[in-house]
Amino acid sequence: MMNKPWSESCDQNREPILEVIRPLLSESGSILEIGSGTGQHAVFFAKHLPHLQWHASDQSDYHAGISMWIEEAGLPNVHGPYQLDVMQESWPRLDLDAVFSANSAHIMDETMVEAMFVGVGAILPFGGVFALYGPFNYAGSYTSESNARFDEWLKSRDPNSGIKSFEWLNVLAGDAGMKLCDDVAMPANNRILVWVKGAE
Description:
Layout: H1 8-24, E1 30-34, H2 40-48, E2 53-58, H3 63-73, E3 78-83, E4 98-102, H4 110-123, E5 129-134, E6 136-137, H5 145-157, E7 164-165, H6 166-175, E8 178-186, E9 190-197
């Protein structure tokens, strides 16, 4: 029998992330999480944000683990997991106000990240929010020695992965019709970048 997957980093970062997204999503009703991974974030955020319908998604390899977390939690406002590879042509057809993704961009190659922003821009309504959590580079530099080591480790596993440039991500967001509204410093040299669709 499969053991329920668990990520230490999810337990470590969930409270700081919740502090940022709670006010950010106070007016939202439905959210898609891209790359739900173990499923820990989905059930934690759904429990603490009961006004939100939380839609977990990931590639099919992760669905069994996500389902175990969702079934054990038994929450009425967490759904999925939905099949979503950012490269797939058709994304889940959901009525959304927001999109959230944590620790995803640095494990993707650039083509995948580009596809993610195009997809998010396409499914968000005017005023919809996209919140992206993770480590990012600024002005061509790492923000810490630990991020530099992390990037080296990522590239040793997959040369096409690695920490992405904030400036590049912001251009992708602009091309997808989104404007940066916040850039929040988080523990462990991470950030939450927040874009809004069609913002002035």
